[in-house]
Amino acid sequence: MAIIISSFKNLINKINNDLGDFCEEFAYTRKKLANLGKAPNRYILFKYEIEDRDWAINEGGGVEIQYHIYLRNGELGYGLGFNTQYVPFANDKTPIEWMKPYDDAFLTLLENNKSQWESLGFRWIEGDEEMLRSPENGSYTLFGKSTSLENNTLNDDFYNQMLSDFKGSLFDIYQDVFSLKNNMIYQQELKKKDMELINEVVELLKYKHNIILQGAPGTGKTYNTAAIALSVLGITDIDLTNHEKVMERYKSLQDNQIFFTTFHQSLDYEDFVEGLKPHVQTDETGQSIGVTYEPEDGMFKLACRAVQTDETKDIVECIDDYLQTIKGFSNKKEIPTITGNSSLYVWWNEGNATISVRSVKSTSKKKEDYTPSPLNIEKVKLQATGKGSENNWQQYAQAFIEAVKNAYKAKANKPVVLILDEINRGNIAKIFGELITLLEADKREGSSHPIQVTLPYSKLPFSVPLNLYIIGTMNTTDRSTGSLDYALRRRFAFVTLKSNVEVIEKYYDGIQNQNLKSIAVALFNDIKAFIETPQHLSSELDIDDLMVGHSFFMAATEQELFYKIKYEVIPLVNEYINDGILNVKADEKKNAFHAWESLTIIEKETTA
After folding, report:
1. pTM, full prediction
2. Angle, CA 88 vertex, CA 85 and CA 90 arms, to 5°
């Protein structure tokens, strides 16, 4: 049989009528997907009001992916359309801005489903992929099916297939595009929030130079330091919300522009700043002849020195090259001392293991090439790389090293980040010593009130460069240590990272596991409600200090989530209870833990 099309309007009315209950299903589905206040006309799919139009779209589809049907030049076509021709009422965005999220979602799905969709008979009727990828104002693309008409007669099989597509394949694609678009926008909003946090913390870090990220376990303190570090270093060519990319770049900059250490109760000044370390001495045959103790740089000093180190220059090679320019007393050079108050003559007699050094103020009457302060070349190189020192004449050795750096432009002033994990677990006075004052921004080298100290072991002058940025992390629930040293607290700004359910949702959307997402989110909300119940929560700490971090609720499988809840979350909450941080009755505790171990929420008591 065939269908005679007397007018396009009559065809639209017939389609709406034959679709029956699907029109209502479509309306309520779109209401949910588009987050509308109320459903549009649920008795029709296509709206047709202007008599001379040869096309129609679904009710309300002007600024969305749309069901589209047309009849022109003896051809009937239908499918999913993408329109950037007009925006009748939503003028807060351009037509392209309205449609681009739908375009991107469709193209993403097309990449994985193209062969399947083509096997169903769908193709580009108007435009193509490239047009959808780079839309212009006034453009229109249509992905669907079409057929030619003879004498306005429509094949009955084509008509029935069209109705089937509207209710089946096209509806599935329509929903998938809308859902993916919603998720992509949601992910973009989360990324925007992540970047707002990163940018806010980075601005604070640039101002204060020292910050501490504090929060309960699992809130992402250590996790976030990587992105913050890269941002303050000026890294702009990667997505700082993409943790995989962030860690890849982070690792490439470790021990160059990023330094990391964890504070603990055994850490001291000798480990962190500088200390005497044993060095085995050997004779010409390689046999040990004893042990000497020489100053060696710790993590803090290495990070400070990295600010002025040009990693494109090998300081050891620069020293070797410099020696060639001062061969013989006749080629001696005058270099400034570390303090800049005097000068030194330096020269090298080829073949010697030492560099000849003498103050320009020397009044010795011995021969002119007499050197009372020879520098061991190998030890100078060790001092230059922070692996040892010229223990006899350290200040002269440092003056020589600075002269080499200046000669070969091996000095820089690049930003460097030092991350101090678990900063509250260390004995601050024992670790920083006299350098605590130098941390302040205005006491640093190059600031308005620079302060310099002489280090106790190397006897070298030392200051903290302005371009060193320190990020500490601190667990607010850790009671195994005392409160953070007030001297340090004054010199740091504090940023509290809160447990965030949106991070959990983002994670499960990323791995496309909505079932596990619902379980994890329900557990998160239930445990949060349990902790912040007024009868439970101690007045000393608030929910941001105690709420179990979102990372504990992010798992690849239900088994992994079970392990995290049973062996990490429950013991942590139990510790809160045992320490008196939470006031919970025994039966309440038993019921809660039993429910959480089963990955369910606590049953609420009901009253008759």
Report:
1. 0.77
2. 105
Token reading at 97: 């801005």
**CA–CA dist 497, 223 (Å, integer):** 11
Token pair, residue 497, equals: 């990272």
Lowest mean pLDDT among 84-88, 198-202, 301-305, 306-310: 84-88
- Please determine, for residue 379, whether its predicted confidence score (pLDDT) is greater than 70: yes
566-to-574, 588, 597, 599 alpha-carbon distances in Å: 11, 17, 6, 9
Whether the CB-CB separation of 5 and 149 falls below 8 Å is answered with yes
3-state DSSP call for residue 98? helix
- Quick one: which of 555, 567, 563 has its CA closest to 510? 555
Beta strands in 484-533 (DSSP E): 493-496
Across 295-299, 312-316, 586-590, the highest mean pLDDT is recorded for 586-590
Phi, psi at 523, each rounded to 5°: -65, -45
Tell which residue, 193, 46, 290, 282, has the closest CA to residue 497. 193
Radius of gyration of the chain (CA): 36
127: left (phi over 0), alpha (psi -120 to 50) or beta: left
Q: What CATH fold (topology level) applies to the domain 209-270+414-496?
A: Rossmann fold (3.40.50)
* Residue ranges of E strands in 31-135: 46-47, 55-58, 66-72, 75-83, 123-126
- Statement: residue 505 has pLDDT above 50: yes
d(CA 316, CA 381): 6
DSSP helix, strand, coil percent of the chain (3-state; round to 5): 45, 20, 35
211 contact partners, CB below 8 Å, separation of at least 6: 201, 204, 205, 470, 471, 472, 492, 493, 494, 495
Which amino acid is residue 330, in one-letter code? S
Per-residue pLDDT for 538 more than 80?
Answer: no
Average pLDDT over residues 164-172: 97
Distance CA 83, CA 346 (A): 77
Structure tokens at 136: 């212009």
Q: Please, what is the Cα angle at 347 between 341 and 350, to 5 degrees? A: 160
Determine the topology of domain 2-184 in CATH.
BirA Bifunctional Protein; domain 2 (3.30.930)
From CA 482, how far away is CA 488, in angstroms rounded? 13
